[in-house]
Amino acid sequence: MIPTLFGVTIIVFIIINLAPGSPVEQKLQQLQFAGAMGSGDTGGDSAVVSEEVVEALKKQYGFDKPIHIRYFIWLKNLATLDFGESFTYEEPVTDVIFSKFPVSLQFGFASLFLSYLICIPLGVLKAIYDGTKFDYASSFMIMGMYSIPGFMLGILLIVFFAGGQFFDWFPAGDLYSDDYWDYGFWGRVADRLHHFILPCISYMISQFTVLTMLQKNSLLEEIKKDYIRTARAKGLPEKTVYLKHALRNALIPIVTGIGGFLSIFFAGSLLIETIFNLDGIGLLGYRSVLERDYNVIMGLTFIQSILMLLGNLISDLAYVLVDPRIDFK
Q: Residue 324 to residues 10, 252, 310, 320: CA-CA distances in angstroms?
């Protein structure tokens, strides 16, 4: 995990520092534009910034040192979880990132929880009734859902159900209404849920089909094995054969992705957040790249990498809980 983490941070640090349009260059452009507009001249010498100002800006943003020195300084500050200050927001990076957590956390947790809550039972039912009308109808439905990108589904949901040309059942965006704070506790809960439904559907649509079909195919593969034939030969009911004997082993492929629950803290989608006017992690990352906010980019990269690696570790450990035959010793 440690070499992987260092490798990711080194590569990202080098790429963003070699990309054109550094914070210093953007600040110089702002100063030149302000000078030109202030003097009423769009192309004269009044828009030229002195060399002293350029050097001062480089020192202010830490670009007066070689790239490898800047990386080691970043690592040193990382020991105290100091990611520096955002060039755009002029606030500590940790404050900027954590301010976006509520949006990403609630949608990430809901989409993960609902996906597993619905997909595992649905996959089991599809395996039990394999080849029936229920299996064909549900497959047609979830494959149709899989073919629609989340952001496109979000647009369709707004058009059809959020005051477009058809129904006005849900709000078109935001996390809550303007008079949200005037409601009581349960009124606020209902208002949140009302705003929550359409974005949550758009978030979870992509993983819904994959989990369902993975669960179905895994269970179908499991019931073909010898120990299942033995259980049936003993006269055990089909419900017991499926749910007690086959399901546990069929969950192993599903467990592979259970470590991804840590990614709920950074579950952001730029397009979905833009469509529903949600100020979350996805939009923050996109804006940081556009504005060359290096400290925010590195902070997001580091925290996401940590969560990804810890998630992979948890997935490996979960294998042992599901299948005692697995031993890492």
A: 38, 11, 21, 5
